[in-house]
Amino acid sequence: MRTPNDERQRTVNKRNLGFITGAVLALAAVPAGAHHSFAMFDQARPLTLTGTVTQFQWTNPHSFIELDVLTKSGGTEHWSIELNSPNNLTRQGWKRTSIKRGDKVTVTISPLRDGKKGGLFSRIVLADGHVLNGERGADGKAINVPTTN
User: Fold this and answer.
1) pTM of the entire structure?
2) C-alpha–C-alpha distance, residues 9 and 115, integer Å
């Protein structure tokens, strides 16, 4: 025979189960939504910038180069350039110390489609002529994509 207390306990258990299920689903969606598409970058229109590094952020999930670029009129534009993760950059030959504040560099990027001063890194030429590539190696092949033999 069920008592009123049994019914209350079943109601509380159902509510708790619903809350826990909702919380788990919400938390599971966070990582999926955290990674973005690269559609925001115009990869068909490479742009080359020469400037001075103001900051190199070796951070997850993406590293960034902050760059001041001189304009034709003598002013300065600040650009924010997105790179791969430190893990992938390391596999591509980068080090945390590859770029430092004050370095004069030439960077090729895929610019943001919305016209803001930013883009997706493709390659960089350091002042000493050393080249660091991004998603693709010097041979043009993607670096982080497994190959089949």
Assistant:
1) 0.67
2) 58
